[in-house]
Amino acid sequence: MKPTDPPALATALLELLIPPRTSAGLIGDLVEEHKNGRSRAWYWQQTIMALTLSAFREARERKFHAITAIVLGYLSGASLCYFTTSLAGRFVGGYTAYVLFIPLGFLSAAVGGWMVSRSHSRAMVFVFAIFCIIASAVALAVYMLFPIDRMPLAMTVVVLTLDFIIMPAGVLAGGLFGAAHESHSTYRSI
Predict the structure, then answer these.
(1) Which of 29, 38, 58, 90 makes a 20 to 30 Å CA pair with 148?
(2) pLDDT value, residue 185
(3) d(C-alpha 67, C-alpha 73), whole Å
């Protein structure tokens, strides 16, 4: 890959998570602007904005579909995350368990993203990822306003990393895996 090529991951996200009716033209415009001198950072910024706007449009146009995607993704990912991290905390214990929370959280979120991608439209994966970030921000605000019990600093850092980076990345990874698998098969679950 030449340094002048646009970021492949950003382009793949656009291809897989934006409805086909808009993705081809958008990608073409972004690639052309990138070739005309726009930076990779600009390309990523435009990709994130396009994904976010597409997710909000899809959620607004298909409210029930968005709600069911969020509920399915959250119930599957959060329950698996709770189960696996509880086991890690119980059997490993101490700060070592905190280190295990990161891959366990990523895998749990990936399962949630995969389930959403296999049962809903591709755009709903990003709707679910945005929901995870918004829910985390609300939970953080409530925690800061009403501190019932303060977590140790190490656990706070792990939770913030999980909530704002690892879990949304896991949702997208699972969603991309499910969407890529779907595009290679003739079966499409509704």
Answers:
(1) 90
(2) 42
(3) 10
